[in-house]
Structures are given as structure tokens and as C-alpha cells.
Write a structure and sequence with these properties.
By secondary structure, this protein is an all-alpha fold. It has 15 helices and two strands. A two-stranded antiparallel ribbon has the order 1-2. The relative contact order is 0.21.
């Protein structure tokens, strides 16, 4: 295995260690990789995993909303500590049981990228919580969903991934769908659909909320881009453990520095909802990581818009919220855009073809330490 250089941190594709589970078919005549014979599910495995992950993210958000309705409310940093602490424990147990190498430090050659994923992921997560102190959920959701657009551009710039005009148009239409569902007050004025019960905030505080959303957007962009840069050189649990570890560390330090009191459980419902937040978060992050490892950023992030559709449905089931006509129209636009990207046959770049070829050539050299997962 050749030594990694700083230039190859983002674009290193020829490691023997391969933790992906993508199936490729090889032509028996000339050894070329035949992608046309792949089924719809295999061809879009990454996108489908990302869409599945959005259901669990939506379920986690519903659990957090139910949790915030209890007395006393739990601070956002404490929720992050509990959620990511559960995720960290699950990751380490899984890697220990399955015998995955380097469960603590991660594979050599990608540890810096894993560190970047963990730290940027924390800012992506905490920025959203911070913004909700000053903005409505509708405003914050629309702003944070700039992430798919910025992540697609980052993937094109840093990872040299293809980013077609059609994918960009699909992303813009998906963002339009999010706006129709969220109907933010800064675009539609003060409407009755804006969630009630939020405290009045000064313009300076609202600006802080917008800044927090931009922090979340930048953090998520760095996290998704680094996951794709890592690719299949690390097991999804390696990526998850670094993310959960640094979220737990930074959130714990934040609670200590800002003297945030710990809220202890007062009922079984309190404990159950916290466990649901942890479990749903673990499932969502695992599926998202597996999906981004298999999909280009520009295509993959489009599937994240499905979360808004799941939220609309779950809010109807749990809180009796009936979606309005603009919400239904927005959901239809989002699903149509995602369906278009899924049905559009992904282009196989030279790097991806070389990666598949290298994986098959190295198949006979794979040891128990560098097996394919």
C-alpha cells in the first residue's frame, strides 16, 4: 500500500482495505466492469440508504419534540451527549463483536479525515439546535436545507465529482419544495402557519439564529464531503464512532463551560424518549454514512430532502397536524426531484471504475485484517 500524501487525502482510491459492500459484475471476456447488468436496487443502493436514513432522522426529530414537551425540558447539549453517547457505545460494541480492525483509532491513512468528519459533524448538529432558540422550525429547516446544494458544490470542487446541470436543477426544485412546506416568515410574512409559542426575539437575536443555521450548513457540508472522501477505506462504524465521540466530548465540555445543569429523569416516558432519540439517531447516522460512502455527494444529498416529507406525515400521525395544499405541493416536488435523480442512470467516473478494478484485482490479496465488508 503506497504512502498517502497530503494531496491524496481527499482522492485516495487504491487502498486494498475496502469496507464497502457494493457488488460489481465483471465481464468474463476482457475483465471490464459491467454496470449495465446491475439491478435498480443495486445501482441506486446509496441513494436508497440515504432516503431510508431520513425516515429515522424524522422519527428522531419527533421524539425530540415530544421530549421538549415534558417538564422539565432537556437542554440541547444534554440531548446530544445522551444521543451520541448511545451511538458511541453501540459502535464500539458492534466493532468488538464483529472483529473490525482498529475500532478506536480507525484505519491508518484516513484518521485525519475521520477527525474532520467528527468535528464538522458536531457543528452541523449543534448549529441546528442553536438556531431553534431564535428561529421558528420552518425558518431553520429552510435555511439548513441549503446543505444539499453546498455539499454538491463541495463534492465537485474538492472530490472532482461530476455535477450536471440537471442535478443542480433538481436540487433547486427540491429546495423550492422545502420552502413551500416550511413557508418561512422571512419570505411569506407573518402567517398563521408559523409555529406558535416561540418567544419574541430582537432583530439581533434573529440574526444570531440565521448565523447558527449557516454554521450548521457549513458543518454538514464538511461532514458529508469528508464521508465521501473517506469512501470505503473505513467501515461505517469507524465514521460513526468518530462523529459520536467528538460530539460527546465537545457537548460535555460545553455543558461544563456554560454551567448547564443536568436534567435527571423524572418518568419512564422521559427515559423511553431519550432511548428512542439515541436508537433512531444511531440507525439514521449508520444508514446515511453507508449511503454517502456509495453515492456521489451531488446525487446523495438530493435524497435528504425526503426527510421533510417524512416529518409532514409523522406530525400528522402524532400531533394531528394536517398539511396544507402548499405542503402537499412541496412534498410532491421533493419526491419528483428525488425520483428523477434516482431514475437517472449514474455516470461512472474514471476514478470509480479504477476503484472497482483495483478492488477486484486485489481480491486475492485481502487478509482477515483487510477483508471486504
Amino acid at each position: 500500500m503506497k504512502k498517502s500524501t497530503p494531496e491524496s487525502l481527499l482522492n485516495h482510491r487504491d487502498d486494498i482495505e475496502n469496507y464497502g459492500s457494493m457488488q460489481t459484475h465483471q465481464d468474463h471476456d476482457d475483465g471490464a466492469i459491467v454496470n449495465e447488468s446491475l439491478s435498480f436496487t443495486a445501482r441506486n443502493a446509496g441513494m436508497l440508504l440515504i432516503i431510508y436514513s431520513q425516515f429515522f432522522f424524522a422519527s428522531m426529530d419527533i421524539s425530540v419534540k415530544l421530549l421538549n414537551g415534558l417538564d422539565p425540558p432537556v437542554h440541547a447539549l444534554q440531548i446530544i451527549v445522551i444521543r451520541m453517547g448511545i451511538t458511541l457505545i453501540c459502535c464500539e460494541i458492534y466493532m468488538a463483536v464483529m472483529g473490525i480492525p482498529d475500532p478506536i483509532a480507525g484505519p491508518k491513512g484516513v484518521r485525519m479525515m475521520l477527525f474532520i468528519r467528527g468535528v464538522t459533524g458536531f457543528f452541523g448538529l449543534s448549529g441546528m439546535y442553536w438556531s431553534l432558540q431564535y428561529l421558528s422550525v420552518a425558518d431553520a429547516t429552510v435555511l439548513v436545507f441549503l446543505t444539499p446544494l453546498t455539499a454538491a458544490v463541495a463534492g465537485s470542487i474538492f472530490l472532482k465529482e461530476s455535477y450536471s446541470i440537471k442535478q443542480a436543477i433538481a436540487g433547486v426544485f427540491s429546495l423550492l419544495g422545502v420552502i413551500l412546506i416550511g413557508r418561512p416568515a422571512f419570505l411569506f410574512g407573518s402567517l398563521d402557519v408559523v409555529p406558535q409559542g416561540l418567544p419574541d426575539v430582537a432583530p439581533a437575536q434573529r440574526l444570531m439564529g440565521v448565523v447558527a443555521c449557516m454554521v450548521s450548513v457549513l458543518g454538514n457540508t464538511g461532514a458529508y464531503t469528508s464521508i465521501r472522501a473517506i469512501g470505503k477505506r473505513a467501515h461505517p462504524m469507524h465514521v460513526m464512532s468518530y462523529f459520536s465521540l467528538w460530539c460527546t466530548i465537545i457537548s460535555s465540555l460545553g455543558m461544563f463551560v456554560f454551567d448547564i445543569p443536568v436534567v435527571y429523569p423524572t418518568s419512564w416516558m422521559w427515559i423511553l424518549l431519550l432511548l428512542m432519540v439515541g436508537i433512531f439517531g444511531f440507525a439514521a447516522q449508520t444508514l446515511l454514512t453507508m449511503g454517502l460512502q456509495r453515492e456521489t455527494v451531488s446525487r446523495g444529498v438530493t435524497g435528504m430532502y425526503a426527510q421533510v416529507v417524512f416529518v409532514v406525515v409523522l406530525e400528522r400521525l402524532f400531533f394531528g397536524v394536517t398539511p396544507s395544499l402548499p405542503s402537499v405541493l412541496g412534498a410532491a416536488i421533493i419526491m419528483s426531484s428525488a425520483f428523477y435523480v434516482v431514475m437517472k442512470k449514474p455516470e461512472i467516473s474514471q476514478d470509480s471504475a479504477a476503484e472497482n478494478a483495483a478492488t477486484q484485482k486485489c481480491g486475492a490479496l485481502i487478509t482477515p485484517r483487510s477483508r471486504i465488508y
